[in-house]
Design goal:
With about 200 residues, the protein is of the alpha+beta class. It has 2 domains: about 45 residues; about 130 residues, Immunoglobulins (Immunoglobulin-like), CATH 2.60.40. It contains 4 helices and 8 strands; from the N terminus they run αααββββββββα. It has a 4-stranded antiparallel β-sheet with strand order 1-2-6-4. It has a 4-stranded antiparallel β-sheet with strand order 5-3-7-8, with no helix packed on it. A hairpin with a 4-residue loop joins strand 7 and strand 8. It is rod-shaped and about 120 Å long.
């Protein structure tokens, strides 16, 4: 016998039948199953890729160095202004008869400067002026002494015994204009009642 390699099995033998089965194409169902596995793997890869893109698109954005920071909001003037009563004083020279004066301290705690545009009181029988005259400005972290002079115009409309009298002050800053009622306290009430009693007693003479 000549040639190289083992002899080929003859047709019809058991070895020939076994080799024919090995070389035969895979059944159709097996090929479909293999294709389904490949398709599932590709779909899973697509889901992973799309999920990664969504996470990247929705990731928290870090503020840039050039991002503008919000400025702190300016407070309302009534929130930062305080009025403190000091004492009673003689009416200034040149004031009309039946006038009397008080000294108060007006301060601004924070924010921009505040302008006092008006100072009034609730009684119809009294008129009010201030020194310095309104409007005047008060800077932050500072206090300004104000002299309030009242003139009795009609004793019948002025209280002889003021309980808790107040002063209405109109305030303005860069945020708003507000009218704030300040109650200077019991010492102011006592001094006001005494001054009214003296002024109206002299007026009736």
């Amino acid at each position: 016998m000549s040639g190289i390699g083992p002899p080929e099995p003859g047709e019809g033998t058991r070895a020939w039948e076994s080799r024919r089965e090995e070389d035969a194409p895979a059944p159709l169902a097996a090929r479909y199953a293999r294709r389904r596995r490949i398709a599932a793997a590709l779909a899973a890869a697509a889901v992973l890729l799309s999920g990664g893109g969504y996470l990247y698109a929705t990731r928290p954005q870090q503020p840039t160095a050039h991002a503008r920071r919000p400025y702190p909001q300016v407070p309302y003037p009534a929130q930062v202004v305080d009025l403190t009563y000091l004492d009673a004083r003689p009416a200034p020279a040149g004031a009309p008869p039946h006038s009397f004066s008080f000294a108060v301290l007006v301060s601004v705690a924070s924010g921009p400067p505040v302008t006092v545009t008006r100072v009034i009181q609730p009684y119809a029988g009294l008129s009010v002026t201030t020194d310095p005259p309104a409007p005047f400005r008060i800077r932050v972290d500072s206090a300004r002494k104000i002299t309030i002079t009242m003139h009795v115009t009609e004793c019948g409309k002025a209280p002889r015994n003021a309980g808790l009298p107040f002063l209405d002050v109109t305030l303005r800053n860069t945020r708003a204009i507000q009218e704030q009622s300040f109650i200077p306290g019991p010492h102011y009430a006592q001094d006001l009642s005494h001054a009214l009693e003296v002024a109206c007693s002299n007026r009736n003479r």
